[in-house]
């Protein structure tokens, strides 16, 4: 949109949605003008993407909220401060070991495939631990997969939890060319 100057002449400046900012459309290929216009293009595309996501979410929200209410109805608070059955870390670790050894057997690293394999291993581990029926535990599984080329890799985590009920296990696998580390966290939720 073009704005008029006080003298009545038309200007090649448009009013920005940000206060005090004007963007030049003079047709010159100056780097600052193109940077500003590309900045506003990015902002506009983000705004449109956010609006589209909100529309999709608002269409899905009735079914999502009914699913959430059903989940709340099934899981009433137990008011138990201690779990009936604690995490069996050794059993979880042996299960993680079996899954990783099976998936990584004969695996050759490829950057295109590594992300997909990581997701598959993560889902398999989560499903296997969920089948162990540790009631009222929230599970988090993190898998790191990478190529060994002489670089150093350090994987660490920090948690705030109750040491009497919450726990974790880690299993690391490697051969000469690939490494894989999986960590499963279990947090008791009353």
Automatic annotation (TrEMBL):
GO molecular function, one term: dynein intermediate chain binding
Record-linked Pfam families: Tctex-1
Biased composition (Polar residues): 1-19
Ranges annotated as biased composition (Low complexity): 20-34
Domain of life per record: Eukaryota
Gene Ontology BP term (one): microtubule-based movement
Record region (Disordered): 1-34
GO CC annotations, alphabetized: cytoplasm; cytoplasmic dynein complex
Family that this chain belongs to: Belongs to the dynein light chain Tctex-type family.
Name of the protein in its database record: Uncharacterized protein
Organism encoding this protein: Paralvinella palmiformis
């Amino acid at each position: 949109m073009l704005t008029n100057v006080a003298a009545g002449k038309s200007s090649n400046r448009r009013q920005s949605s940000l206060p005090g900012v004007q963007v030049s459309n003079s047709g010159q290929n100056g780097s600052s003008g193109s940077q500003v216009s590309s900045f506003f293009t990015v902002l506009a595309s983000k705004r449109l993407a956010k609006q589209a996501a909100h529309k999709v979410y608002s269409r899905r929200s009735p079914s999502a909220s009914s699913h959430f209410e059903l989940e709340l109805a099934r899981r009433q608070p137990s008011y138990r401060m201690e779990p009936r059955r604690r995490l069996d870390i050794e059993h979880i670790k042996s299960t993680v070991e079996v899954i990783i050894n099976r998936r990584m057997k004969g695996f050759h690293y490829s950057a295109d495939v590594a992300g997909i394999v990581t997701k598959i291993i993560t889902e398999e581990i989560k499903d296997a631990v969920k089948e162990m029926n540790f009631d009222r535990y929230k599970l988090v599984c993190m898998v790191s997969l990478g190529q060994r080329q002489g670089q150093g890799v350090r994987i660490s985590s920090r948690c705030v939890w109750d040491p009497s009920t919450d726990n974790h296990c880690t299993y690391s696998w490697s051969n000469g060319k690939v490494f894989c580390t999986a960590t499963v966290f279990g947090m008791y939720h009353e």
